[in-house]
Here is the input.
Amino acid sequence: MEKLENVTAIAKANVYFDGKVVSHTIYTADGDRKTLGLFLPGDYEFGTGDAEIMDIIDGACQVRLPGTTEYIEIKAGETFNLPGNSKFGFRCYVPVQYVCSYIPLS
Here is the structure.
C-alpha cells in the first residue's frame, strides 16, 4: 500500500507513550476509518475498541495477539488481525510504519 487517494485527513495527531507512537486518522471516500502511524523502538501494550487489520508498511515487529503468551514476528508487507475489545502486545527494535483499518463492531 503505497498511496491512498480521495481521503479526508485529521490534522491533529494521535500521540501515545510520550510521542513514541504517533498516528493520523484518515477517512476514505466510503467513510472507512484508518490510521497511518509510526512506532519508535519500544515495548507497548494497546487495547482495541473496533476490530483492526494492521498492515506493516516498513520495518519489523513482534506481536502478542490476544489470548496468547508468545510473540510472533511480523515484517513489512505482512498483516495481522485484532478482534474488537481486546489487548495486544507490540514490540519493535527499529521504527515501524503501519496502516490500521478499523472494522466497526455490529
About this structure: The chain has a mean pLDDT of 96. Residues 31 and 86 are 24 Å apart (CA to CA). The chain is about 0% helix and 55% strand.
